[in-house]
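Support case: phosphoenolpyruvate complex. Customer-provided input:
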Amino acid sequence: VKNQKKLVVANWKMNPAGPGEARKIFSAVRRVSGLLKRTKVVVCPPAVYSSLFKIDRKNKKLALGVQNIFGQLSGPFTGEIGVQMAKNVGAEFAIVGHSERRVLGETDAVIAQKAAMAVEWGLNAIVCIGEKSRDQNGDYFGFLKTEIQSALSLVKKKFLGQVIVAYEPIWAIGKSFKDAMQPREVHEMAIFIKKVLSDSFGKEWIHGVAILYGGSVNYENAGLIVKDGQIDGLLVGRESLSPEGFKEILKAVDAV
Ligand code: PEP
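Agent response - structure generated as follows:
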């Protein structure tokens, strides 16, 4: 995934309530995406809406993603969505291991299976990691290292180019935009994540892994977080449902 382009992922979560509103938000994103030069937008709507949106595969500025997939291909798994289904309705990306799914009981082992399944079937896996809180001893570094290593434990090296690590400190998600991480701290965390990746897979294998930040991003902090954080893009929650707010985020990132 990683190339000259920045990546901004829109995680709509369990919104909006109906297809009319979903179409409206999507159309606004599609319009803005046409103006972007260096940025690709990935819209991850609730899966029931996925087939409402047709995206030309040649369009390098806009892509579709799903918010979750299952770790098995098909079978008696009521309520789950398989990788092939996601692909067949046009998804190219899958969010894996979002903190809101971990809270619902998704374990590291399940997440590892999902990440491997996604990349082996040709999806780009947006693997979410992030500590709940910070401590003075830096134990959260150990926690993050384990989370990264575990989530990617079943991913073969040759698929690393389809892996995106989204660093989302849980304490910074869904907060006031002033509570997002500072760009310099984001940069330090990106370095740490790269170090863990290169220790696990070898330096020569990890060039293709994109690193995103997520947690209370809006138009005011988006540009600086990407620029001074020296990261590949953003994962955006709430603001991705606001056509105006999201447009400003995209413009800010594209101007970096
Ligand atoms: C998220 O939950 O992935 C997220 C980044 O949310 P928000 O932007 O609303 O903090």
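Residues 183-201 form the longest helix (19 residues).

Case will auto-close in a few days if no follow-up is received.
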